[in-house]
Amino acid sequence: MPSVADLGLRFGSLPSGPTSSIHDVPGVGVGHATVVRDDAPPPEGQGVARTGVTVLDLGGDLWARPVPAGVALLNGAGELTGRSQIDEWGLLETPVFLTSTMQVGRVYDAACRLLMAEQPRIGLDDVVIPVVGECDDSWLNDPRRMHVTDAHVAEALHAARAAAGTGTAPPQGAVGAGTGMSCFGWKGGIGTASRVLPDGHVVGVLLLTNFGQWDRLTIAGREVGRVLGPPAHVQPPPAGSCLGVVVTDAPLDQRGCERLARRIGLGLGRTGSTAHHASGEILLGVATGLRAPRGESPAATPVTGRSLDPYFEAVVDASEEAVISSMLHAHDVTGVEGRTIHALPVDAVRRILAEGGGP
Fold first, then answer.
1. Domain limits of the chain?
2. Cα–Cα 20 to 30 A to 23, which of 160, 205, 249, 305?
3. Which of 294, 301, 298 lies closest to 60, judged by CA?
4. How does pLDDT run across 36-83, given as a tens digit for each residue?
5. Global pTM value
6. Quick one: which of 87, 111, 88 has its CA closest to 98?
7. What's the topology of domain 15-332+339-346?
8. Which residues does the annotation mark as catalytic?
9. CA 154 to CA 135: how far, in whole Å?
């Protein structure tokens, strides 16, 4: 699949990490389980599935050694379980699980079982509230069939654990939780990017893109959507969502994480998002540099004030890139009722960007 670099695009002045993905943050891994099925409706079969699970793992036992976290909303018509605990404590104590809207309960249950198997004190010393986020993939996936199983969640979690430190970017586009997602009328899904700060710390962004209207797509300031014209397929509804996670290895506290998360929205806006009434842009910020044992306060001093400015810049630029990357890596997908969402026509986009100027 073509990448942002293949199109000669550069978002901002800060350098990307070696993989230009959230894997550049030490200890972070992303794993997917993709569920694609063409079957007769029940009771004869299980129906059409274009869905999946994506897991973002931060390394180590997060329940025993949680990390600072904060949540910001651009538009709140969506769900992120565990948000109230993050708001109260300022801590994240599980990996982040992403899936489709009506599969949240199944993923939550499976996550509880998997985490209890790894940490025997869960349910004895204290309970666990897994963090599960969602976007609606029902344009391509049949949401009335419970396609996601415990095995899929386990597959994605194990893949995330295995991916950390491999020096390669995670699969992007129509994979895992991104299998049935659409972005600006074209195929979207999973996108990621990273930036390296002058102080040596890394900021990585992971997005689940499922938002936007075709005529608002903007790439590097160019109104590409208006020049391309509408895709040659029936359009999904103009609402949609974007689950965004930013992770840094810097020592940030809850307030700093929340402020980083909010800047994801600026990156989405650069690409053409207007955060529709029915969309759910739920944004999570995480910092692994202040990890401390459960119930204890970290010893390090957090980055605050104007020192956060380069981090804000990194988040905005990486988020803009991650949106475009989610589309460039995607492929055509046909799903329920024969609906098709085509991948972004990369050659046409390349010509438009080369020509420059207005639409």
1. 15-332+339-346
2. 305
3. 294
4. 999 877 777 788 999 999 999 999 999 999 999 999 999 999 999 999
5. 0.97
6. 111
7. L-amino peptidase D-ALA esterase/amidase (3.60.70)
8. 241, 279, 281
9. 20
